[in-house]
Amino acid sequence: MITLAEENYLKAILKLSKNSENSISTNAIADELETKASSVTDMIKKLTDKQLVDYVPYRGVNLSKSGLNKAIEIVRKHRLWEVFLVTKLQFKWDEVHYIAEQLEHIKSQKLVDALDTYLGYPQHDPHGEPIPNKDGQFPKSFSKRLSELEKGSSGQVVGVSQDNQSFLQYLNSLKITLGTSIRVIQKIDFDNSLEITINNESAHISNDVARNLLIKQK
Amino acid sequence: MITLAEENYLKAILKLSKNSENSISTNAIADELETKASSVTDMIKKLTDKQLVDYVPYRGVNLSKSGLNKAIEIVRKHRLWEVFLVTKLQFKWDEVHYIAEQLEHIKSQKLVDALDTYLGYPQHDPHGEPIPNKDGQFPKSFSKRLSELEKGSSGQVVGVSQDNQSFLQYLNSLKITLGTSIRVIQKIDFDNSLEITINNESAHISNDVARNLLIKQK
DNA sequence: TTTAAAATTTAGGTAAATCTAAAAATTAAA
DNA sequence: TTTAATTTTTAGATTTACCTAAATTTTAAA
Lengths: 218, 218
Description:
The structure is a homodimer of 218-residue chains. By secondary structure, chain A is α+β, with helices and mostly antiparallel strands. Chain A has helices at 4-18, 26-33, 37-49, 65-88, 96-103, 109-119, 165-173, 207-211, and strands at residues 53-56, 60-63, 144-145, 154-160, 181-188, 193-198, 201-205, 213-217. Among the domains of chain A are: 4-63, Orthogonal Bundle (Arc Repressor Mutant, subunit A); 144-217, Roll (SH3 type barrels). In chain A, strands 3-8-4-5-6-7 form a 6-stranded antiparallel sheet. In chain A, a hairpin with a 3-residue loop joins strand 1 (53-56) and strand 2 (60-63).
């Protein structure tokens, strides 16, 4: 049996793996989970014993095959529950993360499948993030990060690659939501921030924000 | 903050309180939760410190005002989730208990309220058990236990007062479900078992079963 | 009403998941 | 390439929720 804490570690390692080719460092996991490096080392040993990760001391970890499967299953549940909360219970997109963090740990294969069916096999969650299917496959994405767009080009927001409440609320304040049209007016080399237009209103956003906005170009 | 284990203790004490006027004994709780009496004593001390129960050593416990509120809230969540599973996700009534045991611990007042609204403020769960409202009030019940019916009288099954899987599956095998008509043909003094008819087919059931069947007489 | 049985509590211990502080290994800088 | 800084691990504690075994209290029986 896999514990709640173990599930959270697997999920964190998967998330960190998406942004790097290399093994995931102890400190990176500690930062992600807001815990201490020594706690991470402890837990990594447990995950190694259960063959959920491959670990070389001082060199970091990678998810094993079975660890990856488990992690993807948790992401699947998280995102399906988010869809449920927004489409059925009328939650806002910036309210669902905390609740889905709890719901993602409910154990019942039958429940996940029934939920998926009930929701109509959605491919994206309310933040535009892809929902892996029953076999762990992610739907193909045609989006780019806003930070990767050329000066002058434009597109529509189809997702965000982070769903913490403060980020989403900041987007709300910028009047950015799914479907919003954005054009890159100027790229500032100094700090990689961007001058953009949001539905033709101009604004200035940091690289940090631009990196987490997924854009589909026409 | 109240932990998962603490919530399970509160729920167990509430359940046991329904069947007795007296304080709840350590052993009764241990039996209910399939744990040891010494573990129960430990936990009772924690609950006492948090003022969730009133406790007199060697004399048992009772839920305090706030402990009762918490326990009722858990029951409310359990039963609302059961309604969700059966009415929206097409689960059978004997499949939902285990999953609802997990879902009842999800923490979000807003979620419970939204779920209640979404389900149309149901008053009973799929086993006919009453669902307390937002204020902790249980709907009035007009049902009796089958074991309390006189010889010759009859009525319809409107609920069960236990929802473990083996009991519900036994009912399925007897062709008893919500709405089934039952008549008491004979009461056997020796073991308090009953000769009954189920939709006019005769059967013999133990007192244990009869006590857990809720009947509404015409 | 004394004694035996049953129930309950206490004492001491374990595993999971955390922590701090110190030691060891790796990386970067002079 | 030696040293300093950073990262990671180890050692030793803590808290929660359990456990077993022994001691204590209550209840029931003789």
